[in-house]
């Protein structure tokens, strides 16, 4: 939204202009979310300005048979429009209904054809939308809108109002990140079908047509798969060579594809050749084959002799567990890792959508892009390790025995697992995955944990490189997760802060605490070295938990000493006449 400079705004500060731009942007975005129009059309519907009658945007939604009026207030504290502001909007709407168009600015007068068409069309509903970044409209403004609604609806329901608060705006933003549905027509040759207990078709698809499908729809074609295309690596290179060099043999040398669709609709073809329509099509097994063929097509035209087997199963909308069962079963026939199946957890897609709103790319499916290191992107594996090290308290053995059903896992359990068998952190059926990736976990918390983990890991890696003594090098190499758990234990407020970026104050505090705790843990752990090394200590719970107990005891002693010193300060600074002193 551009800054609008008019004579009456001559004394405005940049902050006032910024707030004005954001209010207009909010008004336009409400129309995008509510009416499903594009950004350009929504911006053209802005009427905000002098003599706008309290109407910041209006749009005749012919498809929905409604004339929409928006009053938008961007207030950083989330405050809703006041009663005075809403009364101005209500009076402006009444003036338009009474055709007093001369009362309005040029932006509204330029839309008179649209307004009059709406007002003269039977069945068109008036819809009033107060937009703001809070959750509740005030009681007085609510009462005034209800009074307008009652007045206009005396004969028939022709007016309604609905607040677009923070939750609704956030839901619209999240919806924009939803995967695109793939509806496609595909030609199958030499096909057959199964009709019970559910419909499925199988036959030959040409490699060239498959390559075109991938080009047209990209990653959306693999939305229900556990992996995206991993790039030209390993077996994928062999697939590319075969489809280019031996097209006639490709059908016999490839496992083929499995896909699911909500609905399968055949055309009037024959068993030799028939076009099928697939609604919400997704390849659930064969992403590497499809990606490799698409990559081969970039290098040159693929022979029409290259064909492969494809099976498409009709699962219907809302298939739920059965769709996931197909994906899991069909992929168990190939070599896959536990992290691949984590992609079936809907929480992972929710986190991706939340992070996308903040401009962060979250790769929870293995892909070629996931291997590239970027500041604004991270993977599920990175998230799992960071959350395991930084999300849970360090629990003393005596406390664990006193409360065996504690609300939170013991951080020691997770950092030992991360050191010994890191893959167990993202096994969906394992003990730790559900502890780490809870339904309440937010994208913001995940991203902050990853960034804190990276910052601390760099400090500890630099410490390892700078050390000359063998034992100290091994401590900083193998004790990183353990140290991080104690940093999080001592700085819970900093870890949980609702900021994606680390401030300079955060970095300073973390650096100081990492160095302080590293030295304390090293000093406490040194006696263990008489019988074993640091690798063994930090990857075995029988050693790591006693060490954690000892560190917690030492920290408790330090805290007690600090409290004692603090409590003695008033006595030591009292007047000489008191004659008292606490040593």
Structural class by secondary-structure content: alpha/beta
**Residues in helix, %:** 40-55%
Instruction: Say how many strands there are.
Output: 13
User: What is the approximate shape?
Assistant: flat
Summed up, the helix count is 25
Oligomeric state, counting identical vs distinct chains = single chain
Mean pLDDT: 85
The major sheet is characterized as: 7 strands, mixed
Strand content: 5-15%
Given as residue ranges, the uncertain stretches (5+ residues, pLDDT < 50) are 332-336, 572-583
Write out the strand line-up for the largest beta sheet, numbering strands in chain order: 8-9-5-6-11-7-10
Distance between the termini: 66 Å
Radius of gyration: 32 Å
List the helices and strands and how they pair.
Elements: H1 14-35, H2 39-44, E1 57-61, E2 66-72, H3 83-97, H4 106-109, H5 112-119, E3 125-131, H6 139-152, E4 159-161, H7 166-176, E5 184-194, E6 200-206, H8 207-217, H9 235-245, H10 250-253, E7 257-261, E8 263-266, E9 273-279, E10 282-285, H11 287-299, E11 307-314, H12 321-331, H13 338-341, H14 346-357, E12 361-363, E13 377-379, H15 380-390, H16 397-402, H17 411-420, H18 433-436, H19 443-466, H20 470-478, H21 480-490, H22 492-496, H23 504-525, H24 534-539, H25 541-572
Parallel strand pairs: 2-3, 3-4, 7-11, 12-13
Antiparallel strand pairs: 1-2, 5-6, 5-9, 6-11, 7-10, 8-9
Helix pairs in contact: 3-6, 7-14, 8-11, 9-11, 14-19, 15-17, 15-19, 19-20, 19-23, 21-23, 23-25
């Amino acid at each position: 939204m551009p800054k609008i400079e008019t004579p009456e705004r001559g004394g405005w500060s940049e902050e006032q202009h910024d707030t004005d731009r954001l209010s207009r942007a909010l008004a336009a975005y409400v129309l995008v979310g509510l009416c499903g129009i594009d950004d350009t059309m929504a911006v053209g519907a802005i009427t905000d300005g002098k003599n706008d009658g309290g109407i910041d945007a209006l749009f005749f939604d012919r498809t929905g048979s409604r004339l929409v009026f928006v009053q938008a207030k961007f207030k950083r504290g989330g405050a809703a429009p006041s009663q005075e502001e809403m009364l101005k909007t209500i009076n402006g709407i009444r003036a338009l209904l009474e055709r007093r168009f001369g009362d309005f600015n040029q932006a509204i007068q330029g839309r008179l054809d649209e307004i009059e068409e709406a007002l003269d069309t039977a069945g068109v509903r008036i819809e009033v939308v107060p937009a703001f970044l809070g959750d509740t409209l005030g009681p007085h403004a609510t009462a005034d809108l209800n009074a307008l609604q009652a007045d206009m609806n005396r004969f028939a329901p022709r007016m309604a109002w609905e607040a677009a608060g923070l939750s609704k705006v956030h839901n619209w933003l999240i919806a924009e990140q939803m995967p695109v549905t793939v509806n496609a027509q595909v030609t199958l040759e030499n096909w057959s079908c199964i009709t019970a207990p559910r419909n499925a078709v199988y036959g030959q698809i040409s490699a060239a047509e498959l390559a075109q499908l991938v080009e047209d729809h990209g990653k959306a074609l693999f939305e229900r798969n556990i992996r995206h295309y991993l790039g030209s690596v390993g077996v994928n290179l062999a697939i590319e060579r075969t489809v280019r060099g031996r097209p006639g043999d490709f059908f016999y040398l490839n496992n083929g594809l499995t896909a699911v669709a909500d609905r399968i609709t055949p055309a009037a073809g024959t068993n030799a050749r028939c076009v099928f329509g697939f609604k919400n099509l997704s390849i659930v097994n064969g992403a590497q084959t499809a990606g490799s063929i698409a990559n081969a097509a970039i290098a040159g035209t693929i022979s029409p002799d290259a064909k492969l087997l494809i099976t498409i199963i009709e699962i219907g909308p809302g298939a739920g567990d059965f769709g996931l069962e197909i994906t899991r079963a069909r992929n168990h026939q190939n070599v896959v890792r536990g992290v691949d199946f984590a992609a079936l957890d809907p929480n992972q897609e929710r986190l991706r959508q939340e992070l996308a709103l903040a401009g962060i790319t979250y790769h929870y499916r293995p892909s070629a892009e996931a291997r590239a290191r970027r500041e604004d992107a991270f993977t599920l594996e990175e998230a799992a390790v960071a959350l395991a090290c930084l999300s849970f308290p360090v629990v003393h053995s005596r406390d664990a025995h006193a409360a065996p059903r504690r609300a939170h896992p013991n951080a020691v359990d997770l950092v030992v697992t991360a050191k010994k068998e890191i893959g167990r952190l993202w096994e969906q059926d394992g003990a730790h995955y559900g502890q780490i990736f809870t339904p309440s976990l937010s994208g913001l918390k995940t991203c902050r944990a990853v960034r804190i983990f990276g910052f601390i890991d760099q400090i500890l890696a630099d410490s390892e490189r700078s050390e000359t003594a063998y034992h100290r090098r091994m401590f900083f190499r193998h004790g990183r997760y353990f140290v991080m758990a104690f940093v999080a234990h001592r700085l819970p407020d900093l870890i949980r802060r609702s900021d994606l970026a680390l401030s300079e104050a955060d970095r300073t505090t973390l650096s100081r605490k990492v160095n302080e705790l590293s030295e304390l843990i090293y000093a406490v752990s040194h006696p263990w070295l008489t019988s074993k090394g640091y690798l063994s200590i930090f990857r075995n719970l029988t050693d790591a938990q006693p060490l954690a107990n000892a560190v917690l005891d030492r920290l408790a002693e330090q805290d007690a000493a600090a409290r004692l010193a603090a409590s003695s300060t008033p006595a030591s600074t009292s007047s000489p006449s008191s004659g008292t002193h606490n040593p």
